[in-house]
Inverse folding.
């Protein structure tokens, strides 16, 4: 977890060493009921967590995103 100054506020990032998310998955990871990854990971969630996070961040005038490559982990971030 990291926090840093950003041009328009504070940027908070959370990085993992997981399998990463391919380009197609990154396009839909914040959509309601969307799940990416292997079947085992999908069976443990509803696909709402990141959609709710996006709604909260955007309601506060912020932005949220993910930087990732398949096989290299992911960094989820938001700026408020």
């Amino acid at each position: 977890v990291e926090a840093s100054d950003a041009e328009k506020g504070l940027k908070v990032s959370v990085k993992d060493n997981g399998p990463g998310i391919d380009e197609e998955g990154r396009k839909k990871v914040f959509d309601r009921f969307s799940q990416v990854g292997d079947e085992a990971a999908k069976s443990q969630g509803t696909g709402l967590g990141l959609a709710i996070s996006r709604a909260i961040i955007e309601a506060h005038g912020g932005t949220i995103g993910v930087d990732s490559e398949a096989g290299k982990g992911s960094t989820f971030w938001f700026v408020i």
Residues 33 and 47 are 4 Å apart (CA to CA). The longest strand covers residues 9-15.
